[in-house]
User: Fold Pyruvate carboxylase subunit B from SAR86 cluster bacterium SAR86A.
Amino acid sequence: MTIKKPTITEVILRDGQQSLIATRMKTEDMIPILKDMDKVGYSSVEVWGGATYDCCLRYLDENPWDRLKVFKKSFKNTKLQMLLRGKNLVGYRQFDDSVIEFFIQNSIKYGINIFRIFDALNDINNIESSIKFVKKGKENAQGTICYTTSPVHNERYWIKLAKDIEDIGATSLAIKDMAGLLRPRTCYELVKKLKKNLNIPIHLHTHSTTGLSDATNFKAYEAGIDNIDTSISSFSNLYAHTATESFISMMYSEEKNPFDMKLLTKISEYFNEVRKKYKKYEGSMRGVDVNMLINQVPGGMLSILEKQLLDLNKADKLKLLIDEIPKIRKDVGYVPLVTPSSQIVGAQALMNVLDDQRYKTLNKEFIDMVNGKYGKIPGDICPKLKKKIDKASKNIDIDDDVQNLEFYKNEFKEFCSDNQLKKISKNPTDLLNFILFPKEAKDFYLHKNKSTLNDIIGLQEGFGLYVD
Ligand code: CO
Assistant:
């Protein structure tokens, strides 16, 4: 029996470079190869969202919407895909539905076809409105399950979640394994069951961190998956993904391969040269790290934690820090570790290790997460921690109400008139930059120097653990 071959999503332009060079690749380094990429025959290219929006404004002095326009112009035959963090959009806090709709409308207008929509806690309420707005815009609303392992995350849990996602109207489903935890056989069983229970196409996104991804992707193919995410070989493996050329070679014999391997080699060689420029952003991992299977610390997270400890002159505490993460995770009901829960748990772990005591200092975001502000927690909260959180919650002032679009429009108008920026004051995408990243957008429009991550302990926006 021949198995249907899955189509391929190329992720170099978003997740590949996000995982390997801290999302620093400039648009000018992408442009020369885009037309070639458009000829490959990918089902889609993941190009936008995740940390790229933030990084454009924060580090690259680029308007993320200008980058999207470049993609739209270059990819005539290939669908454009983005990663959307549910109610958090491409940021780190929740937004009102009016803002979510406005963001999605504009993303569609400037070229996005497929929206992969996830919530770090797998709370379906946090992805429902995005799915609705994408469908209203007649594009592909891909609902996502953020894969993790824990006593509460069993096969029944995943099937139910996937069914619920289909029921709220998702056009397709993604299994998102940001930490490379999905084992090949588990994946096979899961995909088989999902194919049996769901009618919508199923995509797999897994990372190479633990060394399982090639086998996991292959088993997904055997189980009848519809689409696999890969990254061109010169930006593959380590914290990133299975190499595009390798996966194609696993599926096809030399004679029957419909892909132009010479073209793929050309693309890979191009990015190989580009990668050299960004050497200083590379993580320290070589080969694979099987500790991830125990600690569940995802790709980008470990390298940043390492760097933070190094900056604090506490590099010797790394092992303690890594051990702390699963303990905290257990206490907070086994949340998956992905933006923003990865940052929240990472920051709290750092606190515990620096204090040499668990939960002596509690980060505000950690308190909020336990209190359900980011959505429903999958498991049970440790009662002892809950008590501490209840006590600490009393001293926190509620200062960050979610505002609607009208509120931001007025704020933006004021900002523009105060700074003689009349030209941008009516532009929806400039308004969105302002709403999503107020500080970075102001610096960007006022041509101030780029902000640096000087406060490395607190969880501020762009804390740096880019995990998605
Ligand atoms: Co990813």
DSSP finds 20 helices and eight strands in the chain.
